[in-house]
Design a protein that fits this description.
Strand content: 25-35%
CATH architecture: Beta Barrel
Structural class: alpha+beta
Shape: elongated
Number of strands: 5
Low-confidence stretches: none
Mean pLDDT: 87
Helix content: 10-25%
Order of helices and strands: HEEEEE
Number of helices: 1
Strand order of the largest sheet: 1-2-3-5-4
Length: 106
Amino acid sequence: MKKLITLFVALFSFVVSAQEKKETPKKQIVEASCGQCQFGMEGKECDLAVRIEGKTYFVDGTHIDKHGDAHADDGFCAKVRKAEVVGEVVDNRFKVTYFKLLPEKK
């Protein structure tokens, strides 16, 4: 019985420590814009992209038109905007799980 309790405690400790090591993605502020129009990326049409630490990535998980008219004066095809995002770079694309366009500073 003591061996069973010891085994259970060891297993429980292992599971708890494994869960604690799992990193949760953190919010970060990035530059967001049209990859083709503003960042000079190769592509066939206007696609949302982000610039992180000087590197640009097309975005998966949201679409350029979900954040207003891309071709308006303040749209992604006309200017680079700031956005708060959560995600990770996978296969040279930014897989976003959270995207919030930040208001422009006046």
